Amino acid sequence: xxxxxxxxxxxxxxxxxxxxxxxxxxxxxxxxxxxxxxxxxxxxxxxxxxxxxxxxxxxxxxxxxxxxxxxxxxxxxxxxxxxxxxxxxxxxxxxxxxxxxxxxxxxxxxxxxxxxxxxxxxxxxxxxxxxxxxxxxxxxxxxxxxxxxxxxxxxxxxxxxxxxxxxxxxxxxxxxxxxxxxxxxxxxxxxxxxxxxxxxxxxxxxxxxxxxxxxxxxxxxxxxxxxxxxxxxxxxxxxxxxxxxxxxxxxxxxxxxxxxxxxx
Length: 264
Ligand SMILES: NC(=O)c1ccc[n+]([C@@H]2O[C@H](COP(=O)([O-])OP(=O)(O)OC[C@H]3O[C@@H](n4cnc5c(N)ncnc54)[C@H](OP(=O)(O)O)[C@@H]3O)[C@@H](O)[C@H]2O)c1
Prior knowledge:
By secondary structure, this protein is an alpha/beta fold. It has one domain: NAD(P)-binding Rossmann-like Domain (Rossmann fold, 3-Layer(aba) Sandwich), CATH 3.40.50. It is built from ten helices and seven strands. A seven-stranded parallel sheet has the order 3-2-1-4-5-6-7, sandwiched between helices. β4 (88-93), α5 (108-134) and β5 form a beta-alpha-beta unit. α5 (108-134) packs parallel to α6. The protein is globular. The chain starts with a helix and ends in a 5-residue tail after the last helix. Bound molecules: NADP nicotinamide-adenine-dinucleotide phosphate.
């Protein structure tokens, strides 16, 4: 079975939160190239318009864009209402952001909103969409962990904790949903060159491109629990994972420290 056949088994529609930029944008393009109709969610209307225009020029698929702030509980509900009558088989929850600095010095509202987007919205949307999928006995969910989500990491404590939550959540529901024929995958990248670094205020240094992350993840869907896309995340991830947790935390603290030079 090729990738197009594999993905179309879930259904004709895919939903991508954060599909207007960065890694999510790679998923929007990749899924359109596989003939999927797509719903792209993000806040900025111009970014949504741009990706829609770009994809429409290349592929004959239906595209719906929804401008919503998913850190808001009400707007997550809006998304659920607006997609009620669409038969969505594959859900990709990529919208998320990070921050860098000593936790107690960071803006509390932004840190709380990060938890709302990176964790609360994930729980809310995963609950709703897996229930919809269960009634059809098919579907798939892709969530985003991170290299920093396998241990506590200084200078990005709240963000790394939010990604630890997602990783653990993905592993748990994957096992629960297996018998319902619903696949769950956690994508755990290392440093990726996208809008993420700028929003977080991180100097990304040696970052991998977003290109190819979607294809590799879609291939892994159904076969793996977690994918570490790209050489750098594999190299760092697998060499760190064999170390005791406190040593991993120490090494990542040094790496993060280099990424926040200006904030020390
Ligand atoms: N880049 C990395 O190094 C890296 C590493 C590990 C894990 N990750 C994870 O991978 C995922 C994707 O990151 P990325 O690098 O693609 O980030 P990105 O380039 O900043 O893109 C984020 C996407 O999410 C949307 N978004 C942000 N806040 C939102 C909100 N409140 N409501 C709705 N949409 C929102 C953005 O559009 P608008 O701005 O228009 O809302 C954009 O489409 C995230 O979960 C991130 O934590 C990234």
